[in-house]
Write a structure and sequence with these properties.
274 residues, 8-stranded mixed beta sheet, 11 helices, 37% helix, 18% strand
Length: 274
């Protein structure tokens, strides 16, 4: 079994009617943490967090983005282009799950979704922000060597998209994942249709929203990330007032999978001091 069964599974309805697959672990009375996965993945990305004893005192919530995993897969390209709709997904989860003073943890594309939420709703419902190898800008120098792979992942030809997805999954980690976890994450990635992947390319301008952040923020980034350049983390931490920057050595694009103990301790200590 990849992870223990969630304490609760439910369907959340976003403002536009899209239903989202949401799962909860941990202590229902603990401080809430909402994990936002990245491009072409699912809430399974956080397998090494939801089962971690050092985080079991927290209320841990994962979900699948629209077009991913067990959530609805709206056919309209516009669903994946609208910042307000991405923001509405997060707001709906907070409201319908009763999450208050929540910490948002956004990985990769999840950083953009945090930006969407901040631009629409601000920080009043939040306690803290954690950006993990996150992207909040479109400038080419903030990306690594995987742009071609991400474009090919949106190709309707299965031979092209599958090969690109496999290569992208390998590029996400410095040290290869093995066994059930690796297989499950690759299978989860293939649940996101190429048309959704292609539709997720959109403008990004979160400068004002990030500069106005008035809650604690933590920026974590793998020094050996091939997908998002470490320069992005330095830039992001500089934009967020008072943010703490943690650059993890010997780590690629997914520190929570590659070095879960170190990542979990960073997250635990950050939430503890909010």
């Amino acid at each position: 079994m990849l992870v223990s069964p969630p304490r609760r599974s439910l369907r959340i309805t976003a403002p536009d009617g899209t239903t989202l697959a949401v799962r909860e672990w941990g202590d229902p009375t603990g401080r809430p943490v909402l994990f936002i996965h990245g491009y072409s993945q699912t809430g399974l990305s956080w397998a090494r967090q939801v089962d971690a004893p050092e985080l079991a005192h927290l209320r841990l919530v994962t979900f699948d983005l629209p077009g991913h995993g067990g959530s609805d897969h709206p056919p309209e390209t516009s669903r994946y282009q609208d910042s307000a709709l991405w923001a509405g997904d997060i707001a709906a989860i907070l409201e319908q799950c009763g999450l208050q003073a929540v910490t948002l943890v956004g990985w990769s594309y999840g950083g953009r979704i945090i930006g969407d939420y901040l631009a629409a709703f601000g920080t009043h419902a939040l306690a803290g922000l954690v950006f993990v190898d996150a992207i909040t800008e479109n400038a080419r120098h903030f990306y690594g060597s995987c742009n071609r792979l991400m474009k090919e992942m949106g190709d309707p030809d299965p031979a092209v998209s599958i090969a690109a997805t496999r290569a992208f999954q390998r590029a996400c980690v410095l040290h290869p994942l093995e066994g059930e976890l690796a297989e499950s994450l690759l299978a989860a990635a293939m649940m996101c249709p190429p048309r959704v992947r292609a539709a997720m390319a959109r403008p990004a301008d979160y400068t004002a929203a990030l500069a106005g952040v008035d809650i604690p923020a933590l920026v974590i980034h793998g020094i050996d990330d091939q997908v998002i350049a470490p320069a992005m983390a330095v830039h992001l931490a500089g934009m967020l007032p008072g943010a703490r920057l943690e650059m993890m050595a010997d780590t690629g694009h997914a520190p929570f999978l590659e070095h879960p103990a170190a990542f979990n301790h960073l997250l635990r200590d950050f939430v503890k001091h909010l």
